[in-house]
């Protein structure tokens, strides 16, 4: 059978879209790689309490065919319908869904900028740290949670990087009982001032609010703006980090580094849209103000490819509220309804805010100065910064792809998701739209006999 | 002013630069992208004699095989030259008979080929499927890391390399002779221009006012997760691959050359289809590749593919490259249209082009590769 709409991704955008479309009478199938709905933002452990915003959305899914633990590896056109191929469940069973329209709500993943020592145990992604806590797991570096305490209890965790996610992470960590001695943000209030129109009349205050708002953190956590963790130290695991002042281009200011002892470091430089399904289908992309490619959509969330919609972080990172707004508009559009003017205005306002934030937290080109030659930039294939630089200066590489061909950076398990933006920068480029024809590993036996899906 | 401008920083352009420079010429290499960004970077690095029937292409491949062996001693080890050998298997008696005749012709032309009986296959490839009729072993088949090979050849050529500069015109004098190229970054003057633009060779030829019918022929390659070393030891493929290479059909031709890499991944390639520059994924192409690979090595069924990529082979109607001076435009030389064999054929191509540039006697008969051998009427029309 053919669904009216297949939604890929069960985060805020996908859940809202699926529920809205079903309410409008469409036959909707929702596929998601995770076991529980909610996406990265509302991640929660199986069996645990469902976060309130998800509960509200999930209640509206009763008429939606929800296929959890289905990782869509490709979408192909088949006549006038779409065929979605997925790897399903822990056994990686083959699955296929046929639909007349597809909405891509594949979300985003965390941007990592490497620094010396970032591969030490105890250094985790900021989003990853939050996900682990939400998933009921102990943070590396803090040991097993003592009975009766939160999972992060007792450990000193430095939170560093750039972007509004850091505050949320620090708050979650503190709520779990961790001590967050310092929150290190690479951007400064001046970056906000440049985008004041979209952000607020009082950028400095907003900046503080956005990064430092939680009362929970107020007494215990020091906020250092225009600083970065430029090195992590330890022999078998993390013992301390070096925090250094940055110039406006994020170049470390010599002589300003100081050592901060800690048990763990949660570090991230914002999020980047997950694009491979969209680029694989030939969707046009735009560059968001932080230099990252995102799917280009029109006022009704239509991509450049007929029959294909996109919503949420895939179209540019902007948070749950924007993602939901876009999911709703997309569902209306798929159903042939014109989105109400109020929804369009709300979307425009939220998108402008998101773009201003992206501009304010755009990684400065000077961050590459904190790498030393031996820093492993691609962890999967163990490719150092020195080798990448040599490929550029001596061998004729000029972008992430040619660096990959000459050094194997980005050829390993993560397929460049972790190192891609960093490698592009080392080659002197903004990252190009991701091209990954297989969006996840697929057993050869399944490729050899892909299941059909009845019309 | 350099003696020649070479357009294209793929492996063929790099080899032209290397041999021209070794012959004492100064060359400038210009490319709109990075090094090896076109078909070279999408290739598997095959240096094959096994898939070529006796004839001019095999002669070119045999010369190249010798040159690659020489180069392996000169270029740094990152080039990853490995003479791993090819194993062409026959699934049934009829295929084996055909393969035997094919190999006999090759042997007469100077190729080393040894028949391996069915019960000897396990010694060469322990994980090969049971029930195969037999195979031929080609010890001369070899391998390089193609992008690195291009980069190292270019480096060894000590050429003036201009990357990120697109050629927008071929400059000619009043008599119609080439005097350089115009690029996005200014004019480059030289008495000779070499078209080493691979799959884009038709467009560059058109800039010079001549017709060269290079067409793209798409291929997909699958890459598995890393596996234990020496799971697959040779370049292994079924005899029907040879039919695919020589086929002119526009439809999807597939076969699976299965081979291990130093990184532990196994490469499975490649399909052949003429679909223009279509970059969308073909699940049918992947299905056939995966199925053929699992047929040859059942152990791969449970293995995951972590990546798929595609490239566009530069294809000429008679499956031979265009190499040498273009009599229609004095000073214009071609070195393109090598289809899926460009990595392998690059050194011999470079040597031929260098000889032509210096007016030296060619290392082998260049006549079958004449760039003006195709009907010109289509060029006039298009």
Characteristic terms for this protein:
heterodimer, A: 455 residues, alpha/beta, FAD/NAD(P)-binding domain, Arc Repressor Mutant, subunit A, 3 domains, 7-stranded mixed β-sheet, 15 helices, 29% helix, B: 382 residues, D-Amino Acid Oxidase, Chain A, domain 2, 2 domains, 6-stranded mixed β-sheet, 4-stranded mixed β-sheet, 31% helix, disordered C terminus
Approximately what portion of the residues of chain A adopt beta-strand conformation? 15-25%
What is the CATH class name of the largest domain in chain B? Alpha Beta
Rg of chain B, nearest Å = 20 Å
- Mean pLDDT, all residues of chain B: 92
Biggest interface between chains: A-B, 37 and 46 residues
Mean pLDDT of chain A: 88
Q: Could you say which structural class the secondary elements and strand pairing of chain B correspond to?
A: alpha/beta
Number of domains of chain B: 2
For this structure, the CATH topology of the largest domain in chain A is FAD/NAD(P)-binding domain
Which structural class do the helices and strands of chain A define? alpha/beta
**Overall 3D form of chain A:** globular
The low-confidence runs of chain B, each spanning 5 or more residues with pLDDT under 50, are 378-382
The CATH topology of the largest domain in chain B turns out to be FAD/NAD(P)-binding domain
Q: Work out the helicity level of chain A.
A: 25-40%
Distance between the termini of chain A: 5 Å
Name of the top-level CATH class of the largest domain in chain A: Alpha Beta
* Superfamily (CATH H level) name of the largest domain in chain A: FAD/NAD(P)-binding domain
